[in-house]
Amino acid sequence: MGRHIKGPLDQFNVTELIGLKFDILGKFYLAITNISLYLALVLVVIVSIFYFGDNDSKLVPNKWSIVLETFFASLKGMVKDQIGLAYEVYLPLIFSIFFFFLTGNLISNIPYSFAANASAVVSIGYSLTFLLGVTIISLFKHGNKFFRNFIPEGTPLALVPLLVAIEFTSYTARGFSLGVRMFANLFSGHCLLAILSVFGNQLLSVS
């Protein structure tokens, strides 16, 4: 992996590792990049953490189990306060998403590793996928009542098309805004660390 990254800011460059061509539906090209490699690494790390943190067969919890239970209890309290009585349905998904982001961000802090979550494509892909999932769940749960969110109560009939367009744009823009916000925060943070490290190295070499 190190041969693909020569500088601190190279961890944001997408590099193709393996390319495969298939004669399916014309020309189909599948490329395995450093993004997919590090996302797979994140998945392996998470599975390993939960494997060693499995404490069902032991009476005294180990250190891994205590850490996982602490994270779970903290997140459970926040989710319960936000969602209410139905929090148990969504808690496993939210906990999985939280742990995936946390592990990915911690791995990206390793020098000369790849910051997968700092990629705009990955971050916006996450947010749009979650937005689509939330929309599907809302449609199944509320049915046609879901569309009432796009029409404020008491709206004149003449203004309905305009307000529906505005509310729909605002609703879909959340997917982009959340993805861009996570990408921008991670990217700016890594750039700041790179600048400070280079400046500190030069300052120490001069002194």
From TrEMBL:
One of its GO terms (biological process) is proton motive force-driven ATP synthesis. The keyword Transmembrane applies. The chain crosses the membrane at residues 28-52, 89-108, 120-140, 146-166, 178-199. Keywords: ATP synthesis, CF(0), Hydrogen ion transport, Ion transport, Membrane, Transmembrane, Transmembrane helix, Transport. GO terms for molecular function: proton transmembrane transporter activity. It comes from the Eukaryota. It is found in: Membrane. It is a multi-pass membrane protein. GO terms for cellular component: proton-transporting ATP synthase complex. Mitochondrial membrane ATP synthase (F(1)F(0) ATP synthase or Complex V) produces ATP from ADP in the presence of a proton gradient across the membrane which is generated by electron transport complexes of the respiratory chain. F-type ATPases consist of two structural domains, F(1) - containing the extramembraneous catalytic core and F(0) - containing the membrane proton channel, linked together by a central stalk and a peripheral stalk. During catalysis, ATP synthesis in the catalytic domain of F(1) is coupled via a rotary mechanism of the central stalk subunits to proton translocation. Belongs to the ATPase A chain family. F-type ATPases have 2 components, CF(1) - the catalytic core - and CF(0) - the membrane proton channel. CF(1) has five subunits: alpha(3), beta(3), gamma(1), delta(1), epsilon(1). CF(0) has three main subunits: a, b and c. This is F-ATPase protein 6.
